[in-house]
TrEMBL record:
Keywords: Hydrolase. Hydrolysis of 6-phosphogluconolactone to 6-phosphogluconate. It comes from the Bacteria. GO terms for biological process: carbohydrate metabolic process; pentose-phosphate shunt. InterPro entries: 6-phosphogluconolactonase_DevB, 6PGL, Glc/Gal-6P_isomerase, NagB/RpiA_transferase-like. Pathway: Carbohydrate degradation; pentose phosphate pathway; D-ribulose 5-phosphate from D-glucose 6-phosphate (oxidative stage): step 2/3. It catalyses: 6-phospho-D-glucono-1,5-lactone + H2O = 6-phospho-D-gluconate + H(+). This is 6-phosphogluconolactonase. GO terms for molecular function: 6-phosphogluconolactonase activity. Its EC number is 3.1.1.31. Residues 10-228 form the Glucosamine/galactosamine-6-phosphate isomerase domain. Belongs to the glucosamine/galactosamine-6-phosphate isomerase family. 6-phosphogluconolactonase subfamily. It comes from uncultured Synechococcales cyanobacterium. CDD domains: 6PGL.
Amino acid sequence: MSKTVEVLPDLASLIHRGLELSLAEIKSAIAERGQCTLALAGGGTPKPLYEALATQDLPWEKIQIFWGDERYVPPDDSDSNQRMARQAWLDQVPIPVANLHPIPTDEADPAVAAQKYEQHLQAFFGIAPGEFPALDLIFLGIGNDGHTASLFPHTEALQVCDRLITVGNKDGQPRITFTVPLINQARCVMFLVAGESKQPALEQIFAPEAEASDYPARFIQPTGKLLWLLDQPAGNRLKP
Ligand code: 6PG
């Protein structure tokens, strides 16, 4: 694993840097393997990056889009990560429908939806149960509590190590999420973190010693590149 931490002056420069690095990862994946497999983060921080990616002239037919987590709501719900990414980016570019792999949220039991998404990934990557595919680029954010994807502090999802997808739990609300081992298999993980409210969690995530179940982003130690892009308000007190 190679870990890089960049603190950018403001959100605009964080997004600009995120675009630069994302394009580099996308283009090298396509050059090396003929396609790029991407997993999107939800929340608000990545939205301007998705809007910037929508302005790029890319070989969209070679880009495969997954979601790293999803709220358990219909795709047209204002809370939906799929809806946010489609409005900001995916509905604005000629990416084939078949290249979009949204997380199903229409099963009565979220565990069934998680299993369906896992089977979809296994079929797409041509892997057997127990194997973990390496996505080319996974975008992540962190919450003020140090969660990432839908891996929330002190939840069962943090311990799932034999599956690709599991059910997360945010204050009793189900979420569908990539598991820690699936994220850690990625060739590149890019955290995008902005705002002073994230500073306390970042200090714990970067501390030499802290309980990972208190700050789940500590579990993210990918085999590939780990890029942290922070704006000044989030990262200015971090010890290098
Ligand atoms: C989600 C995200 C989640 C997000 C953090 C940060 O579904 O909400 O995947 O992990 O990245 O909560 O959200 P903000 O970028 O809005 O601060």
